Every structure is written in C-alpha cells, then in structure tokens.
Amino acid sequence: MEPSKLVVSPDVVVRFKEGRIVVHTAFRPAHLLFDSMEIVSVLAFFRCPREQREALEVFPEAPLDTLQGVGVLIPAEPPSEASGGGANAGAASAQVVTLARALDSIAGDLDAFDPSTLREIVRESGISVAARIQSALAAVDALRGELCARRQGYVRAQLDKLGIGPDVEHLKLHIGAGRYPLDGWLNIDRYPAQLALDIRWGLPFADGAADFAFLSHTLEHFYYPHEALNVVREIRRVLSASGMLRVIVPDIEKCLCAYVEQDGEFFSSRRKTWTWWPEAATRLEDFLAYAGAGPEFGFAGHKFGYDFETLRHLLHNAGFRQVERSAYMQSAHAELRHDDASAVAGAMYREQHYSLFVEAVA
C-alpha cells in the first residue's frame, strides 16, 4: 500500500506577530507559535502532497504530529477518491450551494452586527474578520485557477478524440443536449456529454465554423442579461454567414396569462411532463420558480424567464440580424426540425405548447 501523504489545509493562516510566527487554521481557535522561520519551509514542503517520512529527512525536528493535530496538515486524498469527479461531482456541487448559503448568511450578519461585536471576534480569535474572509477567498480562487487552467487541454483532448481539428467547418451544434443527443450533430453539455464543457467557457471553434445551432430548454439556466448574452454572442461568433440558431425556452408570457386568469389547471397539468416539479402552495410561487425568480440557491435551476420580446431583444443585442417566432417542429430548415428530441419541448396544455420557439439568422 502506498504510504499516506500530507498536504497543507486550504484554510491555513500564517501570521507574523511580535517577532514570532503564528500558524493556525481560519476556523479553529487552536494555534501554534514558532520562533524559527524553518516552519515556513516545512509548510512550503507540503504545498503538494508529500510523505511525512520525506519531510523528516529534510527537517528532522519538524513538529509534524502537532501540525496534524490542529489541522494545519491534513491527509491528501488519492485521485481515485478525491471529490469533484465522476459519482462525487454531484456532492461537490451540493457543497458549492452550501457555501453560497453560508456566504449569504455571513453578509447579512456583517450588515447587522455593530463594530463592537466584530471586535470581540478579533479578540477571541486573534484574526480580523476581513482576514478570515480573504483566507476563504484565496482558497476558492486557488481552486478556480486550477480548474480554469485545465479547461483548454481538457476540451482539446476531447476534440482530438472526436477527430475535430481547428479548421473544422459546417458543424451542427446541439448545445445543452443532456440525455438526448442528435445523430450527425456535435452534442455539447456537462459530463458525460459527447463534448463535455461549460458553455460559459466559450465554444472551442473558429469564427464561422458552424451552420446550425440548436438549444432546447437551456438558455433559461443562465443569468440574464450578462451570462445569457455572452452565451448567444459566442454562438453567433461560431455560426457561418446566414447560419441559423433555433432556441426553445419556457414561454413565460403564457405563464403570466395563466396566472392573471387564475388558471390553476395550467400549472398543475405541467407535472404530467415535469413530474419532479415540487408542489407549490400558490400559483405565484409556482410561476416565480419557473421564471427563475423563486429558487434560493439552485445553480442548476432556472435563472430567468423569457417572452418573445425579451428573447428577441437578447438575440439582437448579440448580433443576430433576423429573429422570428416559430412553432413546434415548424422550422423552415429540415436540419432544425428536432424539437421532438427534447424531453420537454413537446409538452402541451389545451392544444398549446408550454414552450416558446424562436429562430435567428446570424
């Protein structure tokens, strides 16, 4: 069995006070005092996972057991068990939601407490609130940097495997394919899609590389206007001259009409298609959640709701020359008549579809 390795905890804080070095973690009261600068070298040694035996060969007097005891050094996880990939990706995403809730709560507390309360925290911990927040930000920023640095190579490896080179042309892009890939199209979504990426990274193709793009119930999962505008601008960039984009989103105008008309059946009947949709106490709760205004911190949920006027405005701002309302399976282009491949685009109520169908010319 491979010897266990140690690594510096992401929330470690090192301070210099009155000629001594204070080492502790941001959220534990215990701390260690050192007179020698050697402790900084010890911590630097464990910036990457290293065996305790290796450290003792270089620093025979290093207090490694003590550093482990207060959580400054923690066991390094083997790559096969580390969270954030495969079956553990969902757990990591849930932790991000928990982090967002915690930050929101902290922001509220900081606005509510008076300065004397914050000074009490500093007296007890020896660390300013700002320093603790900066420590957390540094840890998050480091992870973000590591993930960002791997994007290009990760995507390039997938494209190489698919045989897609930098000079590719006439692509058909199915963005937000989910579990419903289209034959003859490049199906893009989160892992394990044919091409797995976050569309907010941008599209890894040259200008004009695609003739068609198809998005069904995807655009409403991006924040409006900035994220959504960046997404459709990027799609516009990779479309060829007169390339076509077909977008399907929930039709929020129909939801508004149903709300005003007190049509409770409109909302309840949707559960025949969206069986997982939670039962709402009121029509307003149901509508706002569907329009992206109701959820607390659900990063996979809806972020915005579109009517035709707003979607047309967004697409025009992204540079699309012509934007027209369409209908289910009614595209003028045979290549774009794939609404039936979507799990929800065909859902209907009283002979009307719940979705809004729009096409735009690059």
Textual characterization of the structure:
With 362 residues, this protein is of the alpha/beta class. It folds into three domains: 5-75, Outer Surface Protein A, domain 3; 86-153; 164-361, Rossmann fold (3-Layer(aba) Sandwich). 38% of the residues lie in helices and 19% in strands. The protein has eleven helices and 15 strands. It has helices at 38-45, 52-58, 64-69, 89-112, 115-125, 129-162, 226-238, 252-260, 264-269, 283-290, 308-317, and strands at 5-8, 12-17, 20-25, 31-34, 50-51, 73-75, 171-175, 186-189, 195-196, 210-216, 239-250, 322-325, 348-349, 352-353, 355-361. The strands form four sheets. Strands 9-8-7-10-11-15-12 form a seven-stranded mixed β-sheet. A hairpin with a 2-residue loop joins strand 13 and strand 14 (352-353). Helix 8 (252-260) packs antiparallel against helix 10. The longest helix is centred in the middle third of the chain and has 34 residues, at 129-162. It is globular and about 75 Å long. Mean pLDDT is 89; it is low at 81-85.
Descriptors:
362 residues; alpha/beta; 38% helix; globular; Rossmann fold; three-stranded antiparallel β-sheet; Outer Surface Protein A, domain 3; seven-stranded mixed β-sheet; 19% strand
Topology:
Blueprint: E1 5-8, E2 12-17, E3 20-25, E4 31-34, H1 38-45, E5 50-51, H2 52-58, H3 64-69, E6 73-75, H4 89-112, H5 115-125, H6 129-162, E7 171-175, E8 186-189, E9 195-196, E10 210-216, H7 226-238, E11 239-250, H8 252-260, H9 264-269, H10 283-290, H11 308-317, E12 322-325, E13 348-349, E14 352-353, E15 355-361
Parallel strand pairs: 7-8, 7-10, 8-9, 10-11
Antiparallel strand pairs: 1-5, 1-6, 2-3, 3-4, 11-15, 12-15, 13-14
Helix pairs in contact: 8-10
